[in-house]
């Protein structure tokens, strides 16, 4: 029988569901990030899935697998000294004439609108290992960023 006359089921046209992609590289976390990850796993484990629609339950289980993996692979990093920019640093810097402050945190803890960026972000990578008063290249511009102050992120 010709393929043109074959009845296709609705299942053949559904988009496949994939796991939530894990960020590349190490899963470094601050003490706050580790606590938030634990809380997320506990909250997802507490949800009752029996009364849920099948798709909603699958989505929740997929999210729970992601957060369990992130918890299992979390590497709590030591609190850095304030001599150079490192993971776990709070950095005050000047870029394009504007002074800003950011915390360098893990991928899952990053919230750019709250001033927390992932250590893997281009801005964070540009600043790594810089010291106070140092100018670093960013966005193709030599000396675009000036490091004003460095301190360790306090426990939150």
From TrEMBL:
InterPro entries: GreA/GreB_C_sf, Tscrpt_elong_fac_GreA/B_C, Tscrpt_elong_fac_GreA/B_fam. Residues 83-151 form the Transcription elongation factor GreA/GreB C-terminal domain. Keywords: Coiled coil, Elongation factor, Protein biosynthesis. GO terms for biological process: DNA-templated transcription elongation; regulation of DNA-templated transcription elongation. Pfam families: GreA_GreB (PF01272). Residues 43-77 form a coiled coil. GO terms for molecular function: DNA binding; RNA polymerase binding; translation elongation factor activity. Signal peptide: none annotated. This is Transcription elongation factor GreA/GreB domain-containing protein.
């Amino acid at each position: 029988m010709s393929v043109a006359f074959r009845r296709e089921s609705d299942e053949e046209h559904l988009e496949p569901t994939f796991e939530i992609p894990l960020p590349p590289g190490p899963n470094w976390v601050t003490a706050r990030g580790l606590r938030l990850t634990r809380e997320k796993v506990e909250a997802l484990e507490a949800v009752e899935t029996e009364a849920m629609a099948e798709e909603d339950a699958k989505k929740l289980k997929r999210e729970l697998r992601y957060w369990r993996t992130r918890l299992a692979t979390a590497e709590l990093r030591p609190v850095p000294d304030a001599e150079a920019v490192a993971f776990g640093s709070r950095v005050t810097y000047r870029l394009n004439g504007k002074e800003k402050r950011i915390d360098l945190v893990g991928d899952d803890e990053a919230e750019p609108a709250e001033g927390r960026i992932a250590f893997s972000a281009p801005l964070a990578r540009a600043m790594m290992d810089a010291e106070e008063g140092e100018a670093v290249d960013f966005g193709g511009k030599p000396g675009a960023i000036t490091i004003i102050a460095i301190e360790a992120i306090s426990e939150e």
